[in-house]
Amino acid sequence: MLATARTVEGTGGPLVAIDAATVRRTLSHEAAYDAVRGAMIALSAGQVRQLLRSFIGLETGGTFAIMPAAFDGAGVFGAKLVSVVTGDDGRRAHQGLVVLFDGVSGAPVCVTDAAAVTAIRTAAASAVATEALARPDARILAVLGTGRQAQEHVAAIAAQRDLAEIRLWGRSPDHARALAQRLMLETGAPVFACAGVEAAVDGADIVCTVTSAHDPILKGGQIGPGVHLNVVGSSGPAPAEIDEALVAKSRFFVDHAEHVRVHGGEYLRALKAGVIGDNHILGEIGAVLSGAALGRASADDVTIYKSLGHAAQDLAVAAWLYERLK
């Protein structure tokens, strides 16, 4: 467990070390929303330099990844170092650190728990994309998955939208029912645990897929006109939560085009199947936010935001925490 703050000899000043509990206590969904929104706009405007994630496969079957980035003009750079390990229950655990450096002195100034940052900033990014792409009257949310990201996505989107109804689906009906009861108390909105994917998404305006599925759980025929989807759970080139038909019928937006063209499983499967072309990515969400790219063109459009997560989001949140806590 990291201490809240300590001084490391040789840095020329205090190195702020922020543990998971402090992240959760300090970082609101509204603050994460603003930080991530700014990072997305900066990335799409060419004001962030970042490399593709580097992966090392571990002997245990897990993965170790390094995600570096630098903000132009902001005076910060750094990286997220993260391990992804699948537990006995089949759930993937993301653990690691976000390390922030001062752009002038080159000194490390902040080390933050990456799991807590990732959980909150990922949901905040989906909330940003939802505000940019969903219909203004969209108020019924369906979440596929019952893990940490499911909880965070409900909280983040509920912070931006007055939701009339929330539906949950997960492979464990018991987990779905327990989460529904907890979220009903937290949000004040009606929350229902659904027996199947089709029941969860039928009539929903906003759909979030936050599962560890390797193969699609959601198909194009299950989604009607006007729906916005945040596709979040798969983060590598092999897994895919939605099928090729759903990708093909959508206006398809991404957090970072370069990453999705290499690691976006849903996009790559649809491309390989020949149902989309290289130009199916209509833009990054940061370009939609800045007005450089058109998002939703009509009320009947099916819009998709494909999220892989990138270091600029992590560093923006870490920088906010550093300024708050230093």
Overall description:
The chain is α/β, with parallel strands linked by helices. It is built from eleven helices and 16 strands. The strands form two sheets. Strands 1, 2, 3, 4, 5, 6, 7 and 8 form an eight-stranded mixed beta sheet that branches. An eight-stranded parallel beta sheet has the order 11-10-9-12-13-16-14-15. The radius of gyration is 19 Å and the shape is globular. Mean pLDDT is 93; it is low at 5-11.
SSE class = alpha/beta
Q: What is the 3D form?
A: globular
- How large is the radius of gyration? 19 Å
Strand content: 25-35%
Oligomer: single chain
**Helicity range:** 25-40%
What's the number of helices? 11
The count of β-strands is 16
H and E string: EEHHEEEEEEHEHEHEHEEHEHHEHEH
Could you describe the largest sheet, including whether it forms a barrel? Answer: 8 strands, mixed
Distance between the termini: 18 Å
* Mean pLDDT figure: 93
**Which spans have pLDDT < 50 for at least 5 consecutive residues?**
5-11
